[in-house]
UniProtKB/TrEMBL annotation:
Amino acid composition bias (Basic and acidic residues), ranges on this chain: 228-237
Keyword Aminoacyl-tRNA synthetase: no
Subunit text: Interacts with SH3D19.
Family: Belongs to the SH3YL1 family.
Boundaries of every SH3 domain copy: 281-340
Domain of life: Eukaryota
Biological process (GO), any one: regulation of ruffle assembly
GO CC aspect terms: ruffle membrane
Designated gene of the protein: SH3YL1
Protein name (Swiss-Prot/TrEMBL): SH3 domain-containing YSC84-like protein 1
Annotated spans, Disordered: 228-261
GO molecular function annotation: phosphatidylinositol binding
Biased composition range(s): Pro residues: 238-247
Length: 340
């Protein structure tokens, strides 16, 4: 159990390092699915680590202490600022409980709220949500969440009932002044006015390790994604080797010799769909089996699953056909599609 009684900033930093280890390292009680993901801390704009005690009967009181840090523009963590937490509540509850909290600040406005000093009510100044857990980087809800703050909590002790209390975070100015040997505001500490103290080196080693884990995990995921794309590209059928050529722009056909059937075709030498199918009013629709990005002007790009209206085609699937998609007309490799 970590001591919730306020102490000097050196002890608070040591306690914060211990709490972070408990939230982020695999133990017999904490499996990989119960940890704070590395990317949550690596992408955070700031964080607060506290130890809190709550006790009472019908009327309860909460108090505790900890530190808050912010991410500087160069990506490093700021020096710590001492904070306290206090609150009163009421309801059908009784007992005593000690909790460790990690508060992740996801946006600059949340860091600024902590940096302004004075009282700060959790849930009143910004949106608060329970943080995601697990080690999966891809598809994690935290990457899409709009909550300004994520909270993580581990409790020890006995406490039962429904709590209606409110809690306020308070800047501990005296503690900061004694540690930094000057009268300094939390705003100045969190925005880089003082260097990182050597007494908190254990804390910074843990925090920096999250960035390293996140970058390594991201590299592995990018490598897997690139490998999938490479395999997918190798599975694509070869494009037809001979491409139909557009007639020279300067060539002008006289009205007497103009072929009205090919008037709207990009490549007049393709045999006409209407010529081959007679007077049928039913257009030929094909579905793309693979994505085609197009390589030259006049190509018709599409994504796998798109439905393309064929305007001109040959009898071979190893040829270039002409079609329309989303108002655009162009040619495409016929072996990239299937007839509906």
């Amino acid at each position: 159990m970590n001591n919730p009684i306020p102490s000097n900033l050196k002890s608070e930093a040591k306690k914060a390092a211990k709490i972070l280890r408990e939230f982020t390292e695999i133990t017999s009680r904490n499996g990989p699915d119960k940890l704070i993901p590395a990317h949550v801390i690596a992408r955070a704009k700031g964080l607060a680590v506290l130890s809190v005690i709550k006790a009472g009967f019908l009327v309860t009181a909460r108090g505790g202490s900890g530190i808050v840090l912010a991410r500087l523009p160069d990506g490093k963590w700021s020096a710590p600022s001492a904070i306290g937490i206090a609150g009163l509540g009421g309801g059908f509850e009784m007992g005593i409980e000690v909790s460790d909290l990690v508060i992740i600040l996801n946006y600059d406005r949340a860091v600024e709220a902590f940096a302004k000093g004075g009282n700060l009510t959790l849930g009143g100044n910004f949106t608060v949500a329970v943080g995601p857990v697990g080690r999966n980087l891809e598809g994690n809800v935290s990457l899409r969440s709009t909550a300004a703050v994520f909270t993580y909590c581990k409790s020890r002790g006995l406490f039962a009932g429904i709590s209606l209390e409110g809690s306020c975070l308070i800047e501990r100015k005296d503690t900061n002044r004694k540690f930094y040997c000057q009268d300094i505001r939390a705003y100045d500490i969190l925005f880089g006015a003082v260097p990182r103290p050597a007494q908190a080196e254990d804390l910074y080693e843990i925090l920096d390790s999250f960035t390293e884990k996140y970058e390594n995990e991201a590299q592995r995921i990018n490598a897997r994604r690139a490998s999938r794309e490479l395999r997918k590209a190798k599975e694509l059928p070869p494009k037809p080797s001979s491409r139909p050529q557009q007639p020279p722009a300067q060539t002008q056909l006289s009205p007497d010799f103009k072929d009205n059937r090919n008037e709207h075709k990009l490549y007049p030498e393709l045999s006409s769909y209407h010529e081959r199918c007679g007077n049928s009013n039913q257009p030929t629709i094909v579905t793309a089996l693979y994505s085609f990005e197009g390589q030259q002007p006049g190509d018709l790009p599409f994504q796998a699953g798109d439905r393309i209206t064929v305007t001109s085609k040959t009898d071979s699937h190893f040829d270039w056909w002409e079609g329309k998609l989303r108002g655009q007309t162009g040619i495409f490799p016929a072996n990239y599609v299937t007839m509906n």
